[in-house]
Amino acid sequence: MNYTQNQKISQITPSTLVIGIDIAKDKHVARAQDDRGIEFGKRLIFENRIHGFDSLLEWVERHQKQNAKNHVIFGVEPTGHYWLNLAYFLTAKGYDFVLVNPMHVKKSKELDDNSPTKNDTKDAKVIAQLIKDGRYSVPNLLDGIYAELREGVKVRDQLIQQLMITEGRIQNVIQRYFPEFFDVFKDWEGKAALCTLKLFPFPSQIIEMEPNEVLSKWKPFIQRGVGIKRATKLVETAKKSIGIKIGIEFAKHEIDFLIRQYELYKEQLEQLDNQIETLLTTIPGTKQMIDINGLGVATVAQLFAEVGDISKYSHPQQLVNLAGLSLREHSSGKFKGQTRITKRGRSGLRRALYLAIRPLVAHNETFKALHHYYTKRSERPLKKQQSLIALCCKLLRVLFVIGQKQCGFDGSKLLQGLPQINTLQAA
Question: Are β-strands 327-328 and 335-336 bridged in parallel, bridged antiparallel, or unpaired?
């Protein structure tokens, strides 16, 4: 299944049986037609279970024999995650499997009957029609180490999200019951601050102790960095606290539970990062990518989790399109609108590139020089945000070359042909 529109259309021949499937949670609907759009038989409703998948293949084989078709292409409108089971099942059987854009289905559903009616049976036919016209895309179904990496990165994102939620809830408790806590400790995640939250988090507990007693309770857990001065300040601050003084008993349970969750998430995240880093070392080119100043392991892991095997791509523009960073414009006659990125693609990849380019612009001399050139050049200078997006595309092309050739990063090649670089850097 090829890349260009003409090649997609050429895949649909008179010997092709086109199967459009409308995906749902429990039951799917399939309809069959040929390359001209002539429908075969009635719809098939099958369950999202192995016996349902087997009935689909039996139904398809009957249509193949009855209509002399030797090639089958299945297509679906991706609905959440429910299509993945069917996709992996059919690709494992050796069938061609494609996706159609849900927006295309929505906008073309009135072409046949001039009616806005929407149902599963109609959607299955619309999907088949779009496939027949070559308006589909081939999904990037990862396997092997890349599938493992995608799952690992997904779990990592979930852990980070839960960690942020827990951190916010801990600060919520502190602000309600001991808002002056941050007058003593700059950060609640520090060793002394975290120890205090575990042992005596509320002013009512602290004011009952002397500074020496506070210090003695710290010492078994903290060997250095705290002394009698900090302990005295904590006791004095607790005596002047305006924190809430009711509901202390269950508030103590709350802070205990939250800190245990926080420590568990931190431990799980550390273990997961080690496993992901070990997994990355088995992929060609990752060492050279990580060696780029300002680029971290998390970004490289996200890249391979989103795109899979880079060697399967023939041109870096395919990765740019996959990230939704290709440009679009709205123009007509003499009017020319503003150029923007399409944002049609994997949002996770686009987000990872944007988060990676900011430290690169700050710490990597090559990308810093490019950013300076793009924003300060004499002709058509870019705004800061436009420059960052352009550099995201540049970074993606660099990573593509490194992944294909397993070569080191040479920043001088990126600066060739830019005459104003030296002048700008000198200024």
Answer: unpaired
Beta bridge partners of 49: none
All structural domains of the chain with their residue ranges: 5-132, 147-277, 286-426
Burial class (CB in 10 A: 0-12, 13-18, 19+), 150: buried
Which helix (H) or strand (E) segment holds residue 45: the answer is: strand 39-47
Q: Which helix (H) or strand (E) holds 16?
A: strand 16-22
State the pLDDT at residue 422.
52
- 5-132: CATH superfamily: ATPase, nucleotide binding domain (3.30.420.40)
Angstrom distance (rounded) from CA 382 to CA 385: 8
pLDDT band at 423 (very low <50, low <70, confident <90, very high): very low
pLDDT in tens, 85-125: 999 999 999 999 999 999 999 999 888 888 888 899 999 99
**Could you identify the residue written with the tokens 């029609």?**
129
> Residue 46 half-sphere exposure, CB side, CA atoms within 13 Å?
22
Angle between helices 144-177 and 248-280 (to 10 degrees): 160
Domain 147-277: CATH class, spelled out: mainly alpha
**pLDDT 10s digits, 340-360:** 888 888 999 999 999 999 999
